[in-house]
UniProtKB/TrEMBL annotation:
The keyword Cell membrane does not apply. Belongs to the NADH:flavin oxidoreductase/NADH oxidase family. One of its GO terms (molecular function) is FMN binding. InterPro entries: Aldolase_TIM (IPR013785), OxRdtase_FMN_N (IPR001155), Oye-like (IPR045247). PANTHER family: NADH OXIDOREDUCTASE-RELATED (PTHR22893), NADPH DEHYDROGENASE 2-RELATED (PTHR22893:SF91). This is NADH:flavin oxidoreductase/NADH oxidase N-terminal domain-containing protein. It comes from Brassica carinata (Ethiopian mustard).
Length: 376
């Protein structure tokens, strides 16, 4: 019976083992970073212990929700931080629970830049960005509330090293909390993406203008974080093709290739890229397939892809060598035992969008059912 199981698993590409640097993963179904806004006052809460441990399988890889690197990094209520001792202590039991079940756990480190307003900022100051270009108000993902943004203050060249240093310290804190590594959040129109994208970045110093200059902020952070905790514990998330939060690039293919090639110099563990078909953070649109292939071929480390994957096309992406690992967001949110469900080809729980971001410590968070046979 055991033998039969092993044979069955190995015929499912997503469930084959993979060695990601020092980490021996038993399958390729990754928990995507998912903001859940249940970290009251930016402090991770005990209910996250159950949430993450439910989604852990032995040898599975999990990426924690976006976690602020400093008091200027926030733009949403109740997202976790990792810049104080209290944050570090609060993360420890969560990380321990994931490790107790054999998971590998990275922390996604984040600065929102201009996707914020005075209400989230220390002393009610303006948010910071590469530019002073404001964002238009946007309907929040619940489809009702309107997010209002305060026009950002453009960072001076001299201030930039201190922001890079925030990421370095956050990475050190993540290691102190017990995480196995960090994922630098360079996607989705947040601070790092604001620097990279040519429709936002209008700087005239060495952090703006040419493609090389626009990527310098991201690469300064990669270098600082890799020097702090070792490149074999560092990943980065990028969304060159996306246009979230008014952060489009006019030549995303060139941006993607330049980043892949530049990252090779630092020897970081992985590059995690959002599929071009993702129209918004949680909505799949039409797009030619295989847009990420040139980037995948150029990058020498582990490649992770995310965005709109089902069991079937995740298996195809691995089988065809288009990626090493596939991250799942909404399906993993709603199916704590997703790898098991993929193994037995079980039906999936539907996800409940209205509870994605509510602050309830149970509802829409830890109450999604397991397959009956795996409730243990
Ligand atoms: C509720 C929710 C929260 C998210 N939070 C984050 C986040 O904190 N960091 C991030 O990089 N992406 C975030 N995303 C994007 C997901 O990681 C993922 O890229 C997206 O859901 C597409 O994958 P899927 O089609 O498998 O859901 C979030 C998406 C959802 C639905």
């Amino acid at each position: 019976m055991e033998m039969e199981n092993a044979v069955a698993k190995h015929s499912i590409p997503l469930l084959t083992p993979y060695k990601m640097g020092r980490f021996n993963l038993s399958h390729r179904v990754v928990l995507a970073p998912l903001t859940r806004q249940r970290s009251y006052g930016n402090v991770p809460q005990p209910h996250a212990v159950l949430y993450y441990s439910q989604r852990t399988s032995p040898g599975g890889f999990l990426i924690a929700e976006a976690t602020g690197v400093s008091d200027t990094a926030q733009g949403y209520p109740d997202t976790p931080g990792i810049w104080t001792k209290e944050h570090v202590e609060a993360w420890k039991p969560i990380v321990e629970a994931v490790h107790a079940k054999g998971g590998v756990f990275f922390c996604q480190i984040w600065h929102v830049g201009r996707v914020s307003n005075r209400g989230f900022q220390p002393n009610g100051q303006a948010p910071i960005s590469c530019s002073d270009k404001p964002l238009m108000p946007q309907i929040r993902s619940n489809g009702i509330d309107e997010a209002m943004f305060t026009p950002p203050r453009r960072l001076s060249t001299e201030e930039i090293p201190s922001i890079v240093n925030n990421f370095r310290l956050a990475a050190r804190n993540a290691m102190e909390a017990g995480f196995d590594g960090v994922e630098i959040h360079g996607a989705h129109g947040y601070l790092i993406d604001q620097f990279m994208k040519d429709t936002v970045n209008d700087r005239t110093d060495e952090y703006g203008g040419s493609l090389q200059n626009r990527c310098k902020f991201a690469l300064d952070i990669v270098e600082a974080v890799a020097n702090e905790i070792g490149p074999d514990r560092v990943g980065i998330r990028l969304s060159p093709f996306a246009d979230y939060m008014e952060s489009a690039d006019t030549n995303p293919q060139a941006l993607a290739l330049h980043m892949a090639e530049s990252l090779n110099k630092y020897g970081i563990l992985y590059c995690h890229v959002v599929e071009a078909r993702m129209k918004t953070v949680g909505e799949v649109g039409e797009c030619p397939p295989h847009m990420l292939l040139p980037m995948r071929k150029a990058f020498q480390g582990t490649f992770i892809t995310v965005g709109g994957f089902t069991r079937e096309d995740g298996n195809a992406a691995v089988a065809e060598g288009r990626t090493d690992l596939v991250a799942y967001g909404r399906w993993f949110l709603a199916n704590p035992d997703l790898p098991k469900r993929f193994e037995v080809n079980a039906d999936l729980n539907k996800y409940d969008r209205p509870t994605f971001y509510i602050s309830d410590p149970v509802v829409g968070y830890t109450d999604y059912p397991f397959l009956e046979s795996t409730t243990a």
